[in-house]
Amino acid sequence: MKRPILIHPDPRLKKVCAPVPDVTGELSALARDMLETMYDAPGIGLAAPQVGVLSRLIVLDCVKEDGAPPRPLVMFNPEVLSSSEHTSVYDEGCLSIPEQYAEVTRPAEVEVAWIDETGKARKEGFDGLWATCVQHEIDHLNGKLFIDYLKPLKRQMITRKMQKLKRERARA
Ligand code: K2U
Ligand code: ZN
Questions:
Q1: Is 4 within a domain?
Q2: Does the predicted model carry a pTM greater than 0.70?
Q3: What is the pLDDT of residues 75-100, one digit of tens each?
Q4: CATH code (residue 54)
Q5: Among the atoms of ligand 1, which is closest to the Cα of residue 129?
Q6: How many angstroms does the Cα of residue 84 sit away from the middle of ligand 2?
Q7: 72 upstream amide cis, omega within 30 of 0
Q8: Is 1 contained in some domain?
């Protein structure tokens, strides 16, 4: 089922998440809920802390071509093994920081290792939007948000807007 997405500022979004010891039925169900929540948002990535679960689990599907078959990826304990020297800049957003976008520079290509939903160890190289997204999601597992790459003034401005949004949502 769809899960509520935590909105920044929230202490749970700043925590370093715990590794997943093994892929249980419960965690597989969580991954399915996260994919459903992500597609509904809509988004192209989602990390477990964003739905309040402080475990090292992310889901992503960065297929952008309309009509192309979706390619949902579920990653337990993802880690970047290597990243390219050359970088790319992307106007990033975040489902936990709605309607706010800012340019973030990241390595353009990354090699990622993870455990998939069948418990199998996987390793794959990513470039383009997939590379940006998987790094954005792994940052979430380390309590890092894309606004942490911005200048302090810009970050404070966005945080204040989110505090206002949360006050308004609480009153609604
Ligand atoms: O982690 C999240 O909050 C979902 C992010 C993932 C993401 C952010 C920036 C760049 C790539 C991925 C987004 O909110 S998903 C929304 C979105 C959709 C298309 C392109 C960029 C962002
Ligand atoms: Zn995000």
A1: no
A2: yes
A3: 999 999 999 999 999 999 999 999 99
A4: 3.90.45.10
A5: 11
A6: 22
A7: no
A8: no
